[in-house]
């Protein structure tokens, strides 16, 4: 049998931090409200584009795997915030890496994009079509926030995570997966004003992310729990057989409700929402990379993943970790740096919503 082992992993975390207290200068909110309702303590906002973040995370994943860019056969960028609609973001990453022997594509299923990309790449490896793939999740959400909508503006951050998968003959990598869509729920989470259609192009409505928080909350818990039950049944395993759980990081209360529904112990769950907030497609590869760097992943572990996003799309997967848990090498950060604070960085985005940064800073 052929399998698709994860041999490399990496992340890009933007250096500019937006704390809850900083955010409270922009929207009517407080650190106490954000922490108690979401578990988020800070988020990172990017001066790089989605493509540049994806490239930086990919460099780390290749270095961790010890794989040359030319050896990659397929490169997939899972993202809802691709830097361009055409050409795709993946071709930018491919050019930057010099991965000239690969095919490349973007995949957009909202927050589930990286997981769905992993499912596709794994299937390509396991069916013998390719030997190696680079699967990246990257998002630049800070620039699509509506700074007049506090219930959404506090929940999101930017970042990228990536893995390298390679063909092998030992059972490892993604072994089982499940996907579903909650029908007739497209309006529950939308990127308003973005996308090619006559309204957006000719009437230019306001561009921002919008959602119905409570509808997402309920559907996310049920959708992820059902998907987890499906993959566990496919594998003939129970929750007691799972060593580590890496769920999508949207809200700590969603993760806690999911754990309760599955009767899964919280201490075996990787939670990084406090640091990154919801980074959509980047959330699981970021959390997985952090778990590896923190020594929480051990050789041979059985790892459960669960995800949901706009659509509403859901999914779950069972990973069998291989032998290696140490990166072979680290790559240097080669993207441009940023000199300034978060208010400098976000000036244009605030101005788009009619908010003047100097008035924010002087209103102390
Ligand atoms: N600061 C202070 N008060 C706030 C804030 C804020 N940032 N946001 C909302 N409130 C207020 C509301 O106005 C409301 O006030 P009211 O009672 O006077 O009307 C009160 O807090 C309660 O609002 P609720 O919406 O009932 O708060 P809830 O406990 O449901 O939490 C939240 C809202 C955090 C959005 C929650 O519903 C949630 O996390 N939903 C899931 C959202 C999500 O994960 N979205 C993205 C996922 S999709 C994806 O990952 C692709």
From TrEMBL:
Domain remark from Swiss-Prot or TrEMBL: The last Arg residue of the ACP-binding site is essential for the weak association between ACP/AcpP and FabH.
Superkingdom: Bacteria
GO biological process, alphabetically ordered: fatty acid biosynthetic process; secondary metabolite biosynthetic process
ACP-binding: annotated span: 249-253
Organism of provenance: Gammaproteobacteria bacterium LSUCC0057
Entry-linked Pfam families: ACP_syn_III (PF08545), ACP_syn_III_C (PF08541)
Task of the protein: Catalyzes the condensation reaction of fatty acid synthesis by the addition to an acyl acceptor of two carbons from malonyl-ACP. Catalyzes the first condensation reaction which initiates fatty acid synthesis and may therefore play a role in governing the total rate of fatty acid production. Possesses both acetoacetyl-ACP synthase and acetyl transacylase activities. Its substrate specificity determines the biosynthesis of branched-chain and/or straight-chain of fatty acids.
UniProt GO molecular function: 3-oxoacyl-[acyl-carrier-protein] synthase activity; beta-ketoacyl-acyl-carrier-protein synthase III activity
CDD domains: KAS_III
Active site positions: 111, 248, 278
Name of this protein: Beta-ketoacyl-[acyl-carrier-protein] synthase III
GO cellular component: cytoplasm
Pathway annotation: Lipid metabolism; fatty acid biosynthesis
HAMAP family noted in UniProt: FabH
Domain Beta-ketoacyl-[acyl-carrier-protein] synthase III N-terminal: 105-179
Localization: Cytoplasm
